[in-house]
Amino acid sequence: MAPTVSVVLPVRNAAATLGRALASVCSQSFADWELLAIDDGSTDGTPALLAAAATGDPRIRVLTTPPAGLVGALEAGLAAARAPLVARLDADDECRPERFAQQVAFLAAHPEIGVCATRVVFGGDPVAGRGYALHVEWTNTLLTPEEIALNRFVESPVAHPSVMFRRELVAAHGGYRATGWPEDYELWLRWLEAGVRFAKLPTPLVVWHDPPGRLSRTHPDYADAAFAACKCHYLARWLRTHVDPARPLLLRGSGKPTRRRFATLAEHGISLAGYVDIAPRKIGTRIGGLPVYSPDSVPPAGDCFMLGAVGTRGAREIIRAELRTQGRIEGRDFLMVA
User: Fold this and answer.
1) Which residues face 26 on adjacent strands?
2) What structural domains and CATH numbers belong to the chain?
3) Which of 145, 177, 183, 308 lies deepest, with the highest CB count within 10 Å?
């Protein structure tokens, strides 16, 4: 009989941390799971560790593949999964004992939710890994389907190793794709575009470690430019679907980094009508032929659509509050898209 949960765990040369990850799965209070460990061409002690684990627990299945990369390993795991629910975990992360129990119960009680993530604990150095620590702090604030959907174009709104999703979503909307973009962020944006509802449990149930060699630090698919390209691709599609093309589109922020992040919108047929900035020397000028407005001189809510593109987290909340004070409704009159 098929288990309730298939855990997809890709691994390559992770002997130093794999034991911790496997132990965290084996210690789950919810026991009806299978673990699919996809060994993506490891050359260290990983194969021996996996073989020993599978010998000791028949719920652990080892799939050995030639080195194909993370997306290939993930797709192999999805293809082998037998359960209606798929949980993700990476070989350098670990679950709290109640993770599967709480996610299974939540998805059973909320059939309208397709993806259930959890809050996570940052497992790295908060100084050396300040960027990741801030991302964890931010993503932990997004719990409801509405919060997750509205903030999808800021950063990836859920931590990949914390998700559990319905396997039927893969058949309906596709799985992981090798696009040159972050494979998890691309998947979330594609599923959200298709109407899949995401939610997040308020309890931190995964420790998200941040080793210096992790792919998101070293692989070009996770570079800032790759994130921006992925974001603009799906943001352009969202704008075409949700915003009347007659409404001028204004970008809040006109600095070079901001303009660079959203330059590819034009490649998708989305044209900006101007910028909004607080720098006195810019207001009233033109950048790239487009006018620069002050925040208090932009057209009323119904006469334009604004993209809050300032990346600084504190400034982002100030801008969001300012736009709401002006009577603008998030998702109808503006989006935060840092």
Assistant:
1) none
2) 5-222 (3.90.550.10), 243-336 (3.40.50.20)
3) 308
**Which of the 8 DSSP states describes residue 26?**
H
For residues 138 and 152, is the Cβ–Cβ distance under 8 A? no
**What pLDDT is stored for residue 311 in this prediction?**
77
Please name the helix (run of DSSP H) or strand (run of DSSP E) that holds residue 228, with its range, or none: helix 224-242
pTM recorded for the entire structure = 0.95
Alpha-carbon distance of 69 to 73, in angstroms, equals 6
Output the six-digit token pair for 58: 């028949």
pLDDT band at 124 (very low <50, low <70, confident <90, very high): confident
CA–CA gap between residue 167 and residue 8 (Å, rounded): 11
Distance CA 269, CA 276 (A): 21
246-302 pLDDT tens trace:
999 999 999 999 999 999 999 999 999 999 999 999 999 999 999 999 999 999 999
Residue 329 has which token pair? 């409704």
Number of other CB atoms surrounding residue 119 within 10 Å: 21
The predicted model gives 90-108 an average pLDDT of: 98
Q: What is the largest CA-CA distance in the chain?
A: 71
d(CA 271, CA 289): 12
Residue 226 identity (one-letter amino acid): A
- Distances in Å between the alpha carbon of 61 and those of 22, 24, 65, 77, 299? 12, 16, 13, 10, 59
Question: Are the C-beta atoms of residues 276 and 292 closer than 8 Å to each other?
Answer: yes
CB atoms closer than 10 angstroms to residue 222: 17
